[in-house]
Write a structure and sequence with these properties.
120 residues, alpha+beta, 4-stranded antiparallel sheet, 12% helix, binds zinc ion
């Protein structure tokens, strides 16, 4: 499990097919466990371009984790993609929130409450 302040390594996910790195791992990813969709985050600039990929949630498992560039399965469909450590960061609560938000576990409107919206 991850908790605020815990050091975590962010890995670049390397495609066996094209050698590109379109995804990175999310804070809290454990390379010893088979990866699921929620362990991945599409990197910029592709995320900004709106590239489609497997859903970044728990429904995406081994055989669904494919490179959005060439379609090769990450880690030959084993659930253990080729990864390269990039940086170590401390997990902050906001990152846990974002991870949950992207996987659809939390639904929340962005931004501050507007005038007149507080306490109904
Ligand atoms: Zn590829």
């Amino acid at each position: 499990m991850s908790f605020p302040g815990m050091p975590t390594i962010i890995y670049d996910v390397i495609c066996d097919g094209c050698g590109q790195s379109f995804h990175e791992t999310r804070p809290g990813y454990d390379p010893k466990q088979p990866a699921k969709g929620y362990n991945f985050r599409m990197k910029q600039p592709w995320r900004g371009y709106g590239w489609s990929s497997f859903p970044e949630n728990e429904d995406s498992v081994y055989g669904a984790l494919e490179c959005p560039g060439c379609g090769t399965l990450y880690g030959n469909g084993s659930g253990f993609p080729k990864i390269k450590a990039r940086e170590t960061v401390a997990i902050v609560p906001n990152e846990i929130f974002q991870a949950a938000h992207v996987t659809g576990e939390i639904k929340r409107k962005g931004g501050r409450p507007r005038k007149g919206e507080v306490n109904g």
